[in-house]
Amino acid sequence: MAFVALVAAVGWAAGLLLGYGPTGLLVAVVVAGTGAVAAWWCSDAVALRMSHARPATEADCPRFHNLVEGLCIAGGLPKPRLYLVEDDAPNAFATGRNPRHAAVAVTTGLLDKLNRVELEGVLAHELSHVKNYDTLVSTLAVTLVGVVTLLSDFSLRFLWWGGPRHRDDRRGGAGPAAVLGLLGIVLLVAAPLIGRLMQLAVSRRRELLADVSGVSLTRYPPGLIAALERLRDDRTVVHSASRATAHLWIESPLARAEAEGRGARLNRLFDTHPPLEERILALREL
Fold this sequence. Notes:
Order of helices and strands: HHEHEEEHHHHHHHH
Shape: elongated
Radius of gyration: 22 Å
Strand order of the largest sheet: 1-2-4-3
Strand content: 5-15%
Structural class: alpha+beta
Largest sheet: 4 strands, mixed
């Protein structure tokens, strides 16, 4: 609801400043709805393609399939499609609009570096995202933030190049219309940052909930704790990851320390995950 309200507010501001009145709000709502439906339908295919994931056959990854099947039986879930990402960094993500159209992808580094108990903890975490519809919520959040950013950028560029404004503004009036116009400009400038912060809050909360749900699925907290400790100590990053899909992975796949690569400071500023130490401490208290 908060994301929809933000889109509506940006549409109102754009319509107010560009002289389109309620039409701007209507267009914003239609664009947001269309984008959300498209993202809901195609999110899994887009995320898998962007991550260069390929189907993981049972012959190539028997342990992967075996663990997922057991966890799905325990959690009452249909078995998702399984994918493999050729990368040395240990990581994993889940995507899909609902449990019947879900996919779980792991890196080759995760399969190579984690033992069976640790891998089970990671897979339980990802299946919890599927069971709780976190993948759908995250996808819609990304889409609506994108809509807000595009609307704000378009509106500000249009104003910069002399787009239409209300008559009161052209006459230099300093009445309520001028105050609303100023508020509209402030909202258009701040909206992308507000939307991004809302997305980060949703992603971080969902990660903590998935940790707890994953542990309830395996009934063995030390498994996920050990896995998160391995991820914390491993300094490699996923080469095929991007900021568009970073929120899907079990831990941030982007560089967070200067030694790991470029953009570490910016990645930390807009981190989609709680610190691993915080997640580990929370699990130890269960």
